[in-house]
Each structure stands twice: as C-alpha cells, then as structure tokens.
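not sure who needs this but someone in the group chat was asking about Protein-tyrosine-phosphatase from Macrostomum lignano so here u go. i didnt clean anything up, its just raw.
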Amino acid sequence: DPLPSVPAKAPKDIQVVAVSRADVNIAWKEPDDPNGIITKYRIYYTTERATDIDSNIKVEVPGTQRMHTIKDLEYNTTYYFRMTASNMVGEGPVSDVYPVITVVGIASRPKGFQCATTGHDSIQLSWDPAASSDKGRLISYILSYKSSAIYLEDGMETREEVLPVDNDSGYLLKNLRPGTTYHLTLTPSTEQGKGIPTETIVCQTSDFSKPVNVQARALQGQQIEVTWSPPLEARGIQQWLVRYYRATDPMGTAVPSEETKKVVPNLVEQGFYRYVISGLEPKTAYHIGVAASSGPAGGVSSYESIREPVTTLGLVPSAPKRFEASVRYDPGLRSASIDLNWLAPDTLRGSRIEEYRLLYRAVGPPDLVSSRTYTEVPLSHGRTSWTLPPNKVLFGAVYNFSLSAKNNEGYGDVISCQATVREAPPSMKPESFSVNTKSDTSVEVFALKPILTGRNGHITNTEVAYWPKNAIDGYGSKNFSVENSSAVIRHLNPSREYLFKVRAWNSAGPGPWSDVM
C-alpha cells in the first residue's frame, strides 16, 4: 500500500466576494485528491500581492466547513486570498491568488430573507429593512427566481424582477405555477452596481382544486368516454391526468393515460373536457379518476374519482382495413369529389357485420370550417367504397373521415384518414364592398372575403383597383389583409371622380372583380 500523504491539490472552486464594505465571504469545495479526510482549511490573506505566505494573516477553519467570512477589513482596499487543505498527514499545496476589493459603495446582503406560500400562484416575500449604512443609497432590489420543474425545452423556468426601493421589507410574487417549488434570491443594487445577494431560499406554491362533474360512459369498441369540468380556479392548469384500473385490481396497478395533455378545443368551449380511453377489455368494470396538473414534473391535484365503476360493452368488430381517401378533380378544376375505399375488418369478434358508420367534417383551415359537428352516413354491410360529392367539397379544405363496423353488440373500433383538397382561385367576389369619403383627397375601401363556397381556399388578401373616371391611364391598386377588412386610399385629386373595384386572393390566384363603384 502507498504511504499516506498530504492532499495532492488545493481546495477547488474558490469564490471570494465582498459582502459589505469591511467583510469578505470565501466559499470553496473539497480538493479532488484529499488523500484521506480533510481535517482543516487555512485561509491566507494580505494587502501585498507578492509577499511570502508565511507573512500573511492566517485563519484556520474546520474541515467540515465550506464557507467563512473575514470581518473588519479596511475600506476600499485590495486583499489577496489563498487557501490550503490539511489532512492527518499535513498541509497540502497553496491555491492560486484571489484578489478582492472592499468597495465603499457596495450594498450589504439583505438580512432576514423569508418566503411564505399565499396561494396556488403566489408567494409572499419579506426581509429586514436596509442597514443604516445603505439607506439613501439603494436604488432597487433584484429578485431572481427559478422553478425546480422543467416547463420549457431549454430548461428551467428562470425569471428576474426589479423591485423599487419602496419595497423595503416585502413583496408579493404573483403569476406562479401551482404545486411548484421555487428557488429565490434577493440582491440589493446601488449606483455602483449590484450588491451582495442573499442565500437562496425555497418555497412551494399550493396545489389547485380538483376537477368537478367527472362522468364516464361506455362507448362501442371497448372504449370509455370521460368528461369533466375545470374547477372555479383553473389558472395554471396545463394538462389533465386520467387514471383507470379494473375494479378487480388494487389501485396501485392503475394504467396512466398516455395522452395527458389538454383536450379537444371545441369541447373546452362548451365548458367541459373530454377524453376517450381505448384498448380496454370487453364487459369489464373500470374505476375512473381525473386530476389537474401544471405540466411535466409540476404539481398535480388529487384525483376526483367516479363512485361506481364503468363497464365496457361486449365484443364488437375490429376496425376496417386500408381505409384511404383520394381527391378527384374535374378537368376544368371547377369542382372536386373525395373517393373513399376500405376493406372489411380482419376480426369480426362475434356475429357478422350488419352495417358501417361513416363520420366526416372539414377540420381546417379555420376560415373554411363552418361546423364542428360530424356528418354521419350509414352504409350497408357489403359496401367497400363511398364518394363525398362535389356539392359537399370545398377547395382548400382538409377533411377528416372516420369509419367503424357494427355487429349485434354495437359499433367497433374506429379507423380514420384525411384528405386535403388543393386550392383554386376564388370563384366569387368579396362581400359588403363599399367606398366612403374620409377627406377631400382620401377614401376608405371596405370589403369582406367571399362567402364560404366561393373562397376555394384560405383568403390571404383583398386587392383594390382604382382610377379617375374617363381617364386613359392613371390606374392604381392596393392590397389589404382580410383581418383589417379595409384600406385607406390617399393622395387623390380632389377635382376628379374615381372608380373602384375589388377582388379576393388566395394561394392559387385572384378571384373575379366586383362591380365597379
């Protein structure tokens, strides 16, 4: 075995900071090669950089310490600090030199920095009033805080707020996330710059309330639909967690829902949320519960569970196979239809197929969606194709189709597909076209996008053409966005009469001109 020896290296990560006009704080970590247990540390300091270490002032601290404060130093003086670590054998090598200046203008560390939870989204902070030596010099406090949970792709949520010096002993920190731990520091600031920050304190916001009106019902195809409403105080809720397990199993075997994110927007607009649990066993009872969450690694409310278990329905057909949609255009691109094709399910799960159920609707873009309700089409059991006719198809729209087969137990698993219809130039002129005089040299032109069936895609802008009446040349034009609905035409000749017309544009080109006004 090698003979015991002194520490091979000096303490590491040494930090020397002036914490007031006469005090310096030194922090460090144990050396990488201590060669045993560190019994003590020595801090050497002097006001002369090149002096021998033996002539320095020496302070010894126990080996368990990682920080020490040197007090009663001279104001506005440069000090040079070095450190060593010792074990049972002896003293190790000396560290590098760390200079620090005891600046007269630096603000002292605030004392008594504390926090208390006041709700699910706020924390009350308090600290002692500024020291008498700092009063009149402070210009602000800087509050820095970060959450322990990762909400953003680039790491922890970190923020900083500048508090006026009037907030000399307290501040209510608002708009926080529920059920989340926060790490906070407070730093005073003067005209000379930032002062000495406090030690970091930790505080956790309280959780929010549980969801209400939790209900569940069995759907066809071994599915259970769960609905609920948010609590009265729902701020901070980012996602929902659905828990379910067989009534014969202990609660600890609950299978967490994989889709723990906010649910379909159109159902939220009706004041409740909806989630469908799929892949369950037939004719089996399940316990269901819902909890609110502030996001990954964030706070979670306790689960609100349905009192009685919900039983799934019997064996129903599996989903149809190779369900595909293709768009068919007429030669002149005046209309389009969507052809659907599929094959019967592989697994009938019981008696033969009685019929199919097809659901469809336009799902985008938003200005081409007139309804969020699906249209239902019953189809006979022998069908393997169907066509959405031209009078039901809008150019530029995206359609969603869902298909399921039915036996004597009910409808089975659903299969879905989408079809995107390419845009065509608008076939109709803008609506509500008008021109109003604003001054003797300017007018305002107003126009709305064409009606739904004439847009043939997403309307991007409206073009205005204008010219003096009876003029051979002098044609002018201007575009305005559909969100603004109007444009002001300026610098007109007050002694001339002008004519105006408008047309709508999408990505495929312009539509027809309106009548001249």
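also The chain has five domains: 12-101, 114-204, 212-311, 321-420, 431-510. if thats useful
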